[in-house]
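Consider the following assembly input.
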Amino acid sequence: MIETINLADKFALIDQPWDPRIAAELNGQHVRLAKLAGRFVWHHHSEADEFFLVVKGRLRMGLRDGGPERWVDVAEGEMIVVPRGVEHCPEAEQEAYVLLFEPAETVNTGNVRNDRTRDHLGRV
Amino acid sequence: MIETINLADKFALIDQPWDPRIAAELNGQHVRLAKLAGRFVWHHHSEADEFFLVVKGRLRMGLRDGGPERWVDVAEGEMIVVPRGVEHCPEAEQEAYVLLFEPAETVNTGNVRNDRTRDHLGRV
């Protein structure tokens, strides 16, 4: 059954930050929704490029992509792609809502395992 | 070079409806941006599921997915996934802005070839 998916309705179902949920699956990729608050963990994905669209609020993305570590502001209505292998660390000073595109097998903490690792994502 | 991509700035660069542009590429997939106005053409993609997020305005998606032909409203802030093989026809009574996520090799008119077919997409 093909149905529309309302972003606001779906985000309203997410209680916790750093708890990505699957909103749609297509072509082996996930569309995930997550609330962010505070700083995540530095990590990379060796096999996956990762796309972020800021739906609400503001994201700061820490990047170690060759030069000195830097932090890039990603405002509401802006997107960023972090290529595979690049160490990154999402941060949101205020709560932010983010839509992600990435391969379905991508683990949120990449090469790192800690209490924020989510191996099995719920749907929303 | 990793850079942010601003949706409003990118849409401002698109002059014509039904002229999808590549905003980002990752994992063999495209993030495309398109302005829609009027009715497109009924078509399907035999090898690609297609994701639409309405960034501005309202999309009506014609669907022939088993039952009688139907038209689904997709409002601003809503998404829809059209699975491979399903005949569909996007329509926008007023100009709408849409973000698409689909395999990089996907041709916009799918199994149909007409004056709206775009084999080689520009970037934006």
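The mean pLDDT of chain B is 97. Ask yourself how this observation constrains the way the partners meet.
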